[in-house]
Amino acid sequence: MAGCSGSGGSGGSSDxxxxxxxxxxxxxxxxxxxxxxSVQESAKSAGVELKFSDAQQKQENQIKAIxxxxxxxxxxIAFSPVVESGxxxxxxxxxxxxxxxILTDRAVDSQDKSLYKTFLGSDFVEEGKKAGQWLxxxxxxxxxxxxxxxxxxxxxxxxxxxxxxxxxxxVSADPRFKVIASQTGDFTRAKGxxxxxAFLKANPKIDVLYAHNDDMALGAIEAIxxxxxxxxxxxxxxxxxxxxxxxQALADGKISFIVECSPLLGPQLMDLAKKVVKGExxxxxxxxxxxxFTQEQAKDALPGRKY
Length: 307
Ligand code: AHR
What we know:
With about 300 residues, this protein is α/β, with parallel strands linked by helices. It has helices at about 30-45, 60-70, 90-95, 125-140, 160-170, 190-200, 215-225, 245-250, 265-280, 295-300, and strands at about 20-25, 50-55, 75-80, 100-105, 120, 145-150, 175-185, 210, 235-240, 255-260, 285, 290-295.
């Protein structure tokens, strides 16, 4: 496709394939590993030549990767922005080079929506609301204060901002729910454990942990067990993603509820990329379909789970 009219690239594949430059966030979580696999496998089966980079959770690395894709004159750039702000300059450079950009998984906060063609991914505010609603339903008959600690995702990232916002929108309606501590665990297991250890030392009574992803919840489970408490009983845990290890912890009763966030974005991304390169119209926003899991539902779903 490189060299065709309507496409930005002219330095791409010599065999007529679309060339996509994909700037991934990193390899911080089970979700991310599954997402990378989905993108790589889907590119292969869709006949898209993929140039892939891992930014190790650093915005400057993603910007460098995008600039290198512009220099290489790829046909389309896709990326999952590590944080929401600070993208306008590099997105303008892509636009000037006539290379279409697709946002996948995470959003940017640019006012100029013409800097990218479409945004494919979850509704993170909705995910936060689902987490909050489960909690409200669990405590509907109680009168005591419910002490919540929150493990936030990467500071400044769309999922951290939106999952926090959605959750707060729901729980703040009832004064019994108090978020007594909230800190980033950067979406990693190691940081989730470390921050939860600090939460446990500083707060003698924690009723609920809301973790913005399964990996941080899994790290926190180690911290809770290390402190001689029983996850799922002494402290209820709600998390987001529904990756295999999270679902196993849910089925084992250590996590109480998981809001699904699907990493399997590859097939839809390749479809959108082909359309965008041909100059066809695509929707501004494509929202991923997702569900939630209780402990019983996790037991049923686990055998057929792909990631
Ligand atoms: O952007 C999606 C989030 O990023 C996932 O929920 C989290 O696990 C990942 O690191």
